[in-house]
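Write out a sequence, fold above all:
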Amino acid sequence: QGEEFGRKIGQKQGERNKLIQMVIKKYEKNYSAEETADMLEEGVEEIEKIYEVLRKQKGSYTAKEIGEQMK
């Protein structure tokens, strides 16, 4: 039971990291949060949260770092 729970948590984190990676690529190409949300078929609010963290970052960043800052 605990093992399955851990697996589900890991899967959710992996999905979130993948989304963040895709958002980073769109952000670096200067797409707006609205355009990115439309392209990725995600909610604008979620994309905007990621964009806010990206705007605050200096230099390079990883999906894991962005995800940790969003907690």
In short: Residues 11 and 17 are 10 Å apart (CA to CA).
